Amino acid sequence: MKPLWTLMLVTLLMVPFGCGEQTPAPKTEDKAAKVLKDAEAGNPEAQFRLGGMYLAGQGLPQDFVKAAEWYHRAAVQGHAKAQFIFAGMYALGCGVPKDPAKAAEWTQKAAVQGHAKAQFSLAGMYARGDGVPKDPAKAVEWTQKAAAQGDPDAQCQLGQAYAAGDGVPKNTATAFELFQKAAAQGNAQAQINLGEMYAAGDGVPKNAGKAVEWYQKAAAQGNVRAQLTLSAAYIGGDGVPKDLVLAYAWCSLAAARVGEEQMEARSAVQLVRDGLEPQLTAAERAEGQRLASHWKSGTVLARESKVGRP
């Protein structure tokens, strides 16, 4: 079994920088040998695949240095996906010395070729001044490019900028449109943002029912903030029938998922639970805990009955 830190490093690399771009590695040594032969012959796609094999330790012994070497060979030939992952290796110090400037350089090469995730990553670099001089205008520009290609994270980020008038003129209608596009692709933050807009009547007619629908979509993905918001909705009967058992269930589910480092969220969860528990019977608390413990990702909590409550 690979060391935990190694698995974490691979995950960290693939999520912010690879974003699912890596090609599944061959499952046999014969296929690995074929990829190696093609890579050595100069085929950039094979070089990219070989880099992924060394990075994940699939079909070949795991070797971050060799992974970086093969990603680099593909990257210098203009392979955008390889450029983006190679940038991530510099950002994380994986197989190469950590170097924010080189990470930005390779990210930009991929971004210029139209790689949407690289464009959004580059936007973040300009926003933070990470490897490049801080430049809010360029951050917005690259976010817009990524959003125009349909990247949901970029669409959500750009929507938030329009909602706040941050770097762009404030435009609630544009923000709503961008949130809708991102939410339709499963972006949980965009789903929450839509819920909040409907709840407040911000740029759209106030509609507590629609707000709950969007909170449920985010909560079904395991988003703790959405789960807590749903708990509050069931406490107050806001957009849904009042149901303290479901409120307790959503709060219990959030409690099980919130991280130790999320102090603010943990405090919010505890506050809600402390307020709910005295209002519930032992049987109702047990039902709420059972619902939370049997929850499956992608589903919304629901009760079979409401025995004992009007």
Notes on the structure:
This protein is an all-alpha fold and 310 residues long. The protein has a domain at 1-123: Serine Threonine Protein Phosphatase 5, Tetratricopeptide repeat (Alpha Horseshoe). Helix content is 67%, strand content 0%. It has 16 helices and no strands. It has helices at residues 4-18, 29-40, 44-56, 64-75, 80-92, 100-112, 116-128, 136-148, 152-164, 172-184, 188-200, 208-220, 224-236, 244-257, 263-276, 282-293. The protein is globular, with a radius of gyration of 23 Å. The N and C termini lie far apart (54 Å).
Secondary structure layout plus pairing:
Layout: H1 4-18, H2 29-40, H3 44-56, H4 64-75, H5 80-92, H6 100-112, H7 116-128, H8 136-148, H9 152-164, H10 172-184, H11 188-200, H12 208-220, H13 224-236, H14 244-257, H15 263-276, H16 282-293
DSSP summary: helix tally:
16
| CATH topology-level name of the domain at 1-123 | Serine Threonine Protein Phosphatase 5, Tetratricopeptide repeat
For the record, the CATH class of the domain at 1-123 is: Mainly Alpha
Structural class label? mainly alpha
The percent of residues in helical segments reads 55-70%
Q: How far is the first residue's CA from the last residue's CA? A: 54 Å
Second rung of CATH, namely the architecture of the domain at 1-123: Alpha Horseshoe
Question: Tell me, what's the shape?
Answer: globular
SSE run = HHHHHHHHHHHHHHHH
Low-confidence stretches: 1-26
Assembly type: single chain
